[in-house]
């Protein structure tokens, strides 16, 4: 799924009867016209849930759902948040998915809208023998020093001090990072910048980082494979994919001094104290929030849509995400994400209406 997925189902039973098997129909039945798919690109962090929502959207079409657009399919290309945003200038793209919020000024400059579609956590995965999932603690300053190249061994006193009950091996730490423009990288480095003045001054928060140490790979799947193949490895990736890969992951010390595991509960706690009402275009950071149960490396994925695609295509994107908000919450939770709340959905719909009115004037 790391390259590209296309869901192509939804031909009616009558059409299938007239043209035979669906696979043959597409070749032999010239009267069948498939509508153009909704096309998106960007975040690998949110790719699993977007794929699931695409399946749900097609099912709604087959079941004669009440959603307005006639299109049955969603194509989504996993290219990373930065590349997805860059592709919005291509006329065929309907939306980009980004784990980095775009500023109000940048959105206004390019005539774009932005709204959150799902929340999630970035897990810190490790490959250490004898470490159960979330059986190791790490803090922000320790993580920053690892990625600055200052902490080089799992037996470093700074790591031992927060893991007194673990026999840590004297094994070199092998950091694995993303070399493509990644929103997951943005969330992770935004967190490092909030806990380490040195990291903030030398590297900051961005989708592309010139990493001081480690091995850089493209995409989440290559990153996970690199961790699985390397003893002593450490890396960052979305929680759901780390969990499905059966990789051990760390509990991270938060602002309240609690070690919190990645996952829905910690994300909900972080989102509960975020200033959604005050932010323009929902540009909110969930990293290092002060709630007691907050997981500190949390973030949102945003859909970014250009007004240049026109009202019909913009309406199709709204249609797709409206179905996702209404019926896709359980799927999000099953994959390790947190769905946007009903209150947030109400805010998003009001935002759509406000922007629609402004665009028509």
UniProtKB/TrEMBL annotation:
The keyword Transport applies. It holds the Pfam family PBP_like_2. The keyword Amino-acid biosynthesis does not apply. GO terms for molecular function: phosphate ion binding. GO terms for biological process: phosphate ion transmembrane transport. Gene3D superfamilies: Periplasmic binding protein-like II. InterPro entries: ABC_phos-bd_PstS (IPR005673), PBP_domain (IPR024370), Phosphate-bind_PstS (IPR050962). Transmembrane segments: none annotated. Keywords: Phosphate transport, Transport. It comes from the Bacteria. One of its GO terms (cellular component) is ATP-binding cassette (ABC) transporter complex. Residues 36-308 form the PBP domain. CDD domains: PBP2_PstS. Belongs to the PstS family. Part of the ABC transporter complex PstSACB involved in phosphate import. The complex is composed of two ATP-binding proteins (PstB), two transmembrane proteins (PstC and PstA) and a solute-binding protein (PstS). NCBIfam families: 3a0107s03. This is Phosphate-binding protein PstS. It comes from Neorhizobium galegae bv. officinalis. The lineage of its organism: Bacteria, Pseudomonadati, Pseudomonadota, Alphaproteobacteria, Hyphomicrobiales.
């Amino acid at each position: 799924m790391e390259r590209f997925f296309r869901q192509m189902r939804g031909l009616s039973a009558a059409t299938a009867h007239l043209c035979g098997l669906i696979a043959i129909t597409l070749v032999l039945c010239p009267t069948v016209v498939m509508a153009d798919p909704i096309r998106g690109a960007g975040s690998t962090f949110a790719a699993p849930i977007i794929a699931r929502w695409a399946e749900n959207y097609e099912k709604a079409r087959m079941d004669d759902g009440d959603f307005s657009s006639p299109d049955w399919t969603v194509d989504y290309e996993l290219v990373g948040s930065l590349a997805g945003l860059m592709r919005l200038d291509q006329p065929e793209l309907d939306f980009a998915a980004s784990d980095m919020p775009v500023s109000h000024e940048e959105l206004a400059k390019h005539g774009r809208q932005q709204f959150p579609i799902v929340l999630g956590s970035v897990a810190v995965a490790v490959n250490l023998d004898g470490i159960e999932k979330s059986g190791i603690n790490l803090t922000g300053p320790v993580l920053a020093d690892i990625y600055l190249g200052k902490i080089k061994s799992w037996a470093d006193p700074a790591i031992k001090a927060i893991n007194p009950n673990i026999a840590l091996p004297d094994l070199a730490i092998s950091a694995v990072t993303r070399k493509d423009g990644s929103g997951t990288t943005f969330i992770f480095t935004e967190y490092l910048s909030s806990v380490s003045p040195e990291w903030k001054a030398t590297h900051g928060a961005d989708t592309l980082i010139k990493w001081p140490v480690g091995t850089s790979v493209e995409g989440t799947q290559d990153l996970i494979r690199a961790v699985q193949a390397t003893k002593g490895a450490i890396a960052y990736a979305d929680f759901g994919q780390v969990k499905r890969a059966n990789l051990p992951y760390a509990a991270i010390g938060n602002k309240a001094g609690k070690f919190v595991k990645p996952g829905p509960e910690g994300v909900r706690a972080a989102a509960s104290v975020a200033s959604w009402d005050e932010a323009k275009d929902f540009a909110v950071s969930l990293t290092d929030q002060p709630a007691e149960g907050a997981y500190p490396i949390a973030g949102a994925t945003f859909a970014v849509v250009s007004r240049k695609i026109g009202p019909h295509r913009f309406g199709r994107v709204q249609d797709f995400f409206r179905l996702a908000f209404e019926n896709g919450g359980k799927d999000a939770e099953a994959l390790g994400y947190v769905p946007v709340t009903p209150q947030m959905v109400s805010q998003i719909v009001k935002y759509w209406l406000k922007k629609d009115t402004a665009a028509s004037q």
